[in-house]
Design brief:
Elements lengths: L1 E7 L6 E6 L3 E6 L8 H13 L6 E6 L6 E7 L2 H14 L1 H5 L4 H19 L8 H14 L7 E11 L2 E10 L2 E8 L2 E8 L3 E7 L2 E6 L4 E6 L3 H21 L25 H19 L9 E9 L4 E9 L3 E6 L6 E5 L3 E7 L9 E6 L4 E5 L4 H14 L21 H4 L6 H21 L9 H9 L6 H9 L1 H7 L3 H10 L5 H9 L13 H17 L9 H11 L2 H15 L9 H17 L1 H10 L1 H11 L8 H14 L2 H13 L1 H6 L3 H13 L1 E2 L11 H4 L5 E2 H12 L5 H31 L7 H29 L23 H6 L3 E2 H11 L10 H9 L6 E2 L1 H12 L3 H11 L7 H7 L9 H6 L29 H13 L4 H10 L17 E6 L20 H9 L2 E6 L4 H4 L12 H8 L6 H4 L2 H11 L14 H4 L1 H4 L5 H4 L6 E2 H14 L6 H20 L33 H17 L10 H8 L1 H4 L1 E2 L1 H8 L3 H8 ...
Parallel strand pairs: 20-21
Antiparallel strand pairs: 1-5, 2-3, 3-4, 4-5, 6-7, 6-12, 7-8, 8-9, 10-11, 11-12, 13-14, 13-19, 14-15, 15-16, 17-18, 18-19, 22-23, 24-25, 26-27
Helix pairs in contact: 6-28, 10-11, 11-22, 12-18, 13-18, 14-16, 15-16, 16-17, 16-18, 17-18, 19-20, 19-21, 19-28, 23-27, 28-29, 29-31, 29-54, 34-53, 37-43, 37-49, 48-52
InterPro entries: EF-hand-dom_pair, EF_hand_dom, GRAM, PH-like_dom_sf, Rab-GAP-TBC_dom, Rab-GAP_TBC_sf, TCB1D9/TCB1D9B_PH-GRAM2
Pfam family, one: RabGAP-TBC
GO molecular function, one term: GTPase activator activity
């Protein structure tokens, strides 16, 4: 890439000339792309220590007579730099050769390169060339996806084993990474922001601690504060993203959200500047209580004229698209908020004795003047205000759709249900009203009033009832949201009224009678109706929150003093700004502030903290205090006074009041012996808090009439401000919230893991600690996979719209841990995670000829959902890692049987090729397990019975039609059956794996218990005729996700209960063939494949469905006699791969004993050829059985048996027709056996599980290898270390 020409005085020994001309030289960094020699190590160490990591290629311009050269282009790859060199060669070489003066050559070259640089960077991101090189190195070193955006990098030192390592600390949107290269030794560390548990800084050292108790210390000699604040900010964003949407854990940042209307040029990376502006905007919104969409544009130093004090006060002017704000340098001295839409004029003031003070005067629509002086750059300020005013958009109420409901907004309920106060209380209200009116005359009224310490004092004294709506709306910021969304509340109310059967509405209706039930306003339909509309409208506005208990209590208080729409916007401001995340699932915001309160108690009341921690009191009191802002524990008239202060101070007042309550009860709490006694102490105190200036008429409730008095609420608030007002600041609260946000989310994971471990503690494989470690690595791997998938999706489908303030997704996050099923679902794994865990944790990862992990996943996923739960994962990994040698050998045997190991895989294994790092990916793309669409994942895995079949195969179509014709089915009927058979369409990707179900009619003994085989399709129960017909034949429906004919067997023509004459009748009839049984596509496919010699499955090598092969994982300790009876025999080609897998698992070492066992098994297979008849023809398929063999789970026979003659004749006809079509001679009864034996010897070769186990157990080396258990905890630690050191890619 072209860069601004950079002057170089001395040649560097670290560069090697690759190409050279008269005026240009192309150089390569020494050691780049070469083996690690001494020179390469020296250059790499130099770059790492001195933080000089230039691009590996560059082009210099130099002249023969000058010692000064100019760097004009750099390249990250050789192709990139060659492209620039070719341009120079084509455009400048000849031109420069014709020039006589070297100064002219240099000037021309520099001007040309500057022009190229400007032209190529017109539409660029604004990043410098050095930062682009740094981003490329970051991506290459840590193998990050291109979508992972680098924020900045810092020179840092990391201490490892007491040895300092100088290197580079890279900070991206989702990771903190460190890289160092010292004399040939590389150190890489990768830490996700979402896994950080503690972040702290001491001088220039940044301490990081992760959730798996790993600690890192990084020393930065410069910009340590900037790096620490950046890590804190990105960690906060990562945790908030997990709270908002656990399924999308990747933090993304749209720079267009933080565009500034004007700013000074900066050398810092663009994304770092944007994140800094984002942090400043958040502080700006919190202080001035502005909408979440406001983005700060900048600030300018200035003084404001305060008419009430007749003087100027120094501070800063803040500008945003919709607001002009001022804040004094002295805390809480004065602040002003002026909406841009109310500004009528902005004028310079250059007259009078202060004409040199750069003054301006702003006139609002109410003709209120605001004068500012000592402005640093007055012209720039006026230009910005003018630009913002030109862009201002004043929303207007739009035309709304009309709904068929009748309702009207409810005014403040206190006007309808008036409280009869005593004369003394009325007089106090009038005195407060006079003081407020006097304040309005001096300081202004409305949004643009001067906000000073005087207004704080008035609020602490109490707000009159008549002014509560106005003051609450202004200081909560709700008035801004209301003005920016005219007509929205009406829309929400009417839309919510049309929603039927909503869970949130049911919850709201249940809690309505519990909302201030003692107040007459909520004993009437007017109050209840208004409260219902407010809560339902907000549940529709913010479905992520919906409705949470305690929202009804605060909303009912809002409705007493505010009209219905204002109460709605007060609730929105409370849930989204003042108490963020309080009312979401698990009230996560309240639990975070619970941790904040606990730390504040430890800081300010250290003698009491230990005792309260022991009793667990903080956890019991904080939720009820915080969610209702003390309304549920303090009397209504007293909590109003706290609510007044809350809208001005925010959450700060909650912590101050809580600390004061605990401090006042210090002695009593120290004497408490248990939590119940402590709660009674606090309850007794809180019930006695009263408000002498707002006494409601006495209640008829005897308990309230006898209530004692402990303290006035005015004293409580005053003492709280006096003791804690200066010590607890909003900045301190935000710092503690960031810390406890991490700890709270970590505690959720710990509680979740404890519940799951308790459910599976009785498993035979892993102890408690190993289960915890397994859950941890599952969570980390799932997070890594989700992050990668989310980044890839965003790269393919970039977002074009700016995210909304409140996400309108109605789906709750899956992180809801309230139910046991949700907990376990959070730790279920898909194929990618399962395969990674299998490869990294088990000893069978050495097997490379067969993808054992993929086979084991398919065997474990019995329901075909594309994922396995934690219990299934324990059984699968536990068995492979255990010392149960016999069960492990059985499992390995089963994993090499069809349909798990297909014929196509066997054929591929016979053509070996060198294994590469892409083998795993290519294995997933195998046509046996995936559809034609390569984008489909494991969830699109077809039924194992569908392998190697082609819907257009002529032999298949003709065979199917012939079978149906012989059975008496017409062509149209055949086509109808084809349409209704789910597995018939092989190339369709429209149905998911969970929907791939085939229906079979299976013959079961009539004497079987009712629960042995039942119909799982509820829809067919209504078809009485079909069911009665099936039951009369002794057959039942069976639905299995994965099935083939060998699992279920062909239909028996003789019902289990038939005998005597009935049997003779059946033998004389050829038309009683069970058509439903052979109409399934996968069954017919097996029949046709056998005639084409694609599959020569005999009774001994019967391939079961995955359901029938998966018993081993369910009952690993089942006796050999029962389990081995249902395992099919194995063909020779499968056995060869099985033995190869054993050799690979043993480390590619095969001793004489193993070789002898291998030869013995081959001989056993050869001897089985003589014992068992060949099954080249259809006539020897297993169509029935004797009455004493053990059926499998579906009631299918597992041993060979004779078949009726009628079926034999049917298959003989088809077999002969296919033989003639293929050019083979017609067989005769006398030559059939010899022909079969000579042509299909290899297919008839087989061994049983019993023969395999008995032979292998005689090999001591195999027994020792399979009896050696694997410590899963050690493997997990190794995997985590790999991830941290970036030694292996995630996926």
């Amino acid at each position: 890439m072209w860069i601004q020409p950079k002057e170089l005085l001395l040649p560097s020994a670290f560069w090697i000339a690759e190409m050279q001309s008269r005026y240009f030289v192309l150089q390569k960094r020494r050691g780049h792309g070469e083996s690690r020699g001494f020179g390469s190590m020296l250059v790499g160490t130099y770059d790492s220590v001195w933080n000089t990591k230039p691009a590996p290629y560059r082009i210099l311009h130099e002249t023969p007579s000058s010692e000064v050269s100019y760097e004009i282009a750099i390249g990250i790859t050789q192709d990139e730099i060659i492209k620039d060199w070719e341009w120079l060669k084509a455009n400048l070489f000849k031109v420069l050769d014709e020039m006589e003066n070297e100064d002219e050559v240099t000037n021309f070259t520099i001007c040309k390169i500057q022009s190229l640089y400007t032209q190529n960077n017109q539409d660029d991101t604004g990043e410098s060339a050095d930062f682009k090189v740094m981003k490329s190195q970051f991506t290459k070193i840590f193998k990050m996806p291109e979508e992972e955006r680098l924020v900045n990098s810092y020179s840092a030192t990391y201490v490892k084993n007491k040895i300092p390592r100088q290197g580079q600390l890279y900070i991206s949107l989702n990771h903190v990474c460190f890289y160092s290269y010292m004399l040939g030794q590389e150190i890489k560390r990768i830490i996700r922001f979402s896994e950080l548990e503690d972040i702290s800084r001491n001088a220039n050292i940044i301490y990081l601690k992760t959730t798996n108790n790993m600690t890192y210390n990084f020393t930065l000699f410069s910009n340590a504060s900037e790096a620490h604040l950046l890590i804190e900010q990105l960690n906060k964003m990562a945790i908030q993203q997990l709270i908002q949407d656990p399924e999308s854990p990747v933090v993304d940042h749209n720079p267009s959200n933080i565009l500034r209307l004007g700013g000074k040029a900066s050398k810092k990376p663009v994304l770092l500047r944007d994140l800094t502006a984002r942090q400043k905007s958040e502080e700006f919104r919190i202080y001035f209580r502005l909408p979440q969409t406001e983005i700060i544009d900048g600030r300018i130093k200035a003084n404001i004229w305060t008419p009430y004090s007749k003087r100027f006060n120094a501070g800063y002017i803040y500008l945003s698209p919709n607001f002009f704000c001022f804040r004094s340098d002295v805390k809480d001295l004065v602040s002003v908020v002026i909406p841009m839409k109310t500004i009528k004029s902005v004028e310079k003031k250059d007259d009078g004795h202060q004409r040199f003070d750069n003054q301006i005067v702003i006139i609002t629509s109410e003709n209120v003047p605001f004068m500012f002086a000592q402005i640093v750059d007055r012209d720039v300020l006026i230009s910005k205000i003018t630009d913002l005013l030109a862009r201002i958009h004043v929303p207007v109420s739009r035309e709304r759709a009309k709904y068929d409901i009748s309702w009207s907004k409810q005014t403040a309920l206190m006007n309808t249900f008036k409280t009869q106060f005593s004369a003394e209380i009325v007089q106090k209200q009038e005195e407060k009203m006079k003081r407020w009116e006097s304040h309005f005359r001096d300081f202004g009224r409305g949004i643009g009033m001067f906000r000073t310490t005087d207004v704080i004092n008035l609020i602490v004294e109490g707000i009159p009832d008549k002014l509560r709506q106005e003051i609450w709306l202004i200081f909560s910021g709700a008035i801004h949201d209301k003005e920016m969304n005219p007509g929205l509340y009406e829309d929400l109310v009417e839309k919510a009224a049309c929603i039927k059967h909503c869970f949130a509405h049911d919850e709201i209706d249940r809690d309505l009678p519990r909302s201030l039930p003692e107040h007459p306003a909520f004993q009437s339909t007017d109050g209840i109706g208004a409260l219902r509309r407010v809560l339902q409208a907000y549940a529709l506005r913010n479905p992520q929150v919906g409705y949470c208990q305690a929202m009804n209590i605060v909303s009912s208080v809002f409705l007493l003093f505010c009209d219905e729409e204002n109460a709605f916007w007060m609730l929105a401001s409370l849930c989204e700004s003042l108490l963020p995340d309080y009312y979401k699932d698990k009230v996560v915001g309240a639990q975070i502030d619970q941790g904040v309160l606990n730390e504040l108690v430890e800081t300010h009341l250290p003698d009491l903290h230990g005792h309260l921690e022991k009793l667990g009191v903080i956890k019991m009191i904080s939720i009820s205090w915080f969610l209702t802002i003390f309304m549920s524990v303090i009397s209504y008239e007293s909590s109003l006074h706290i609510l007044d202060c809350f809208f001005y101070e925010g959450a700060k007042i909650i912590f101050m009041i809580s600390l004061k309550i605990i401090e006042w009860n210090r002695d009593k709490l120290l004497r408490c012996q248990d939590d119940g006694e402590a709660m009674l102490v606090l309850q007794h105190y809180l019930e006695g808090i009263y408000n002498p200036e707002y006494q409601v008429p006495p209640s008829t409730d005897k308990r309230k009439m006898e209530r004692h008095q402990t303290q006035t609420v005015q004293t409580l608030i005053h003492e709280a401000y006096t003791k804690f007002g200066e010590q607890i600041t909003q900045q301190r609260i935000e710092e503690l919230r960031n810390k406890h946000r991490r700890l709270t989310m970590r505690q959720f994971d710990i509680d979740n893991e404890k519940t799951i471990v308790k459910a599976y503690i009785q498993n035979p494989y892993f102890d408690r600690n190993e289960l915890h470690q397994l859950l941890t690595i599952i969570r980390e791997e799932k997070h890594s996979l989700k992050s990668l998938q989310q980044q890839q999706q965003k790269a393919q489908c970039p977002l074009s719209e700016i995210p909304q303030l409140v996400q309108q997704s109605p789906n709750k996050g899956p992180n809801d841990l309230g139910a046991s099923g949700s907990r376990q679902e959070a730790y279920s794994v898909n194929f990618e995670v399962f395969h990674t865990l299998f490869t990294e944790l088990t000893p069978w990862k050495k097997c490379v000829s067969v993808d054992i992990g993929e086979k084991l996943f398919r065997l474990t996923d019995k329901r075909g959902t594309g994922s396995v739960d934690f219990g299934q994962l324990i059984n699968a990994l536990g068995l492979v890692c255990s010392a149960k040698s016999m069960e492990k050998l059985k499992l390995l045997f089963v994993l090499h049987l069809p349909p798990l190991l297909s014929k196509a895989e066997i054929e591929r294994s016979r053509r070996p090729r060198p294994r590469t790092k892409d083998d795993a990916e290519e294995a997933f793309e195998a046509e046996d397990f995936f559809d034609n669409d390569a984008s489909e994942s494991m969830e699109a895995l077809p039924s194992p019975s569908d392998h190697n079949f082609d819907a257009d195969d002529f032999a298949l179509i003709s065979a199917t039609q012939h079978l149906h014709n012989l059975a008496g089915i017409s062509g149209n009927t055949f086509m109808d059956l084809s349409r209704t058979t789910p597995n018939l369409s092989l190339n369709s990707n429209t149905s998911s794996l969970a929907q791939r179900a085939s229906t079979f009619y299976v013959d079961l003994p009539t004497a079987a218990p009712p629960g042995t085989a039942t119909c799982t399709d509820a829809g067919r129960d209504d078809d009485g005729t079909l069911q009665r017909g099936l039951r009369q034949q002794g057959r039942y429906e069976s639905i299995d996700t994965f099935s083939d004919i060998s699992d279920l067997g062909a239909a028996r023509l003789t019902p289990p209960g038939a005998s005597g004459a009935g049997v003779d009748e059946l033998k004389n009839s050829e038309m009683l063939l069970n058509v439903e049984t052979i109409s399934n596509f996968s069954q017919i496919s097996d029949l046709v494949a056998a005639t084409r010699l694609e599959r020569a499955d005999s009774n001994a090598t019967d391939s079961r469905s995955l359901g029938s092969l998966g018993y081993l994982l369910d009952q690993p300790d089942e006796g050999a006699s029962n389990s081995q009876h249902s395992i099919p025999h194995m063909r020779k080609e499968n056995f060869l791969l099985l033995w190869r897998s054993i050799v690979e698992i043993m480390g590619l070492i095969q001793d004489e004993e193993m070789q002898r066992a291998y030869e013995n098994l081959l001989e056993l297979g050869n001897s089985n050829i003589k014992k068992e008849p060949s099954l080249e023809s259809f006539t020897q398929l297993n169509l029935g059985g004797s009455g004493d063999e053990q059926p499998d789970n579906n009631g299918n026979p597992t041993t060979p048996a004779a078949e009726p003659r009628s079926t034999t004749r049917l298959f003989v006809d088809l077999e002969e027709e296919l033989r003639l079509a293929s050019g083979k001679p017609r067989t005769t009864p006398n030559s059939g056996d010899s022909s079969s034996s000579s042509t299909n010897t290899s297919e008839s070769w087989h061994i049983s599980i019993t023969q395999f186990i008995a032979t292998v157990l005689t090999v001591n080396s195999i027994v020792r290898g399979f009896q050696t258990p694997i410590q899963i905890s050690e493997q997990i630690e190794q995997l985590q270390k790999k991830r941290r050191k970036c030694l292996s890619t995630n996926y």
